[in-house]
Known about the structure:
The protein is mainly alpha-helical. Helix content is about 50%, strand content about 5%.
Amino acid sequence: MDFNHFHYTLVEKASAEVENKFGTNYVLVVLQNRMSTDEVDFSLFSFEDLFYVDEILDTMMQDEDMNGNLTLDPSSPFAITLRLSQKISAIGKIPRNRPASRFLFI
Length: 106
């Protein structure tokens, strides 16, 4: 393996530093988990973060039915993380059944 080539390739293709979106991510987590106002730390985000999240939510909503159910763009990062967190939550609620061992000491 040519580690020098690998190193120079990484340096050539290095991208610019990613903007810090902690506040935006925090607002999305609050909405995703439906946290109450008692649980929210309002010092962790700004009004700009709220406006940005509002724009994100507007662009990812595809449809709303008469009952208020939303259809989200499946390729939206928020929709992807929402599905992932719902699956993780569902896995955590699965009862764990341990089969009985035929050995008395286990």
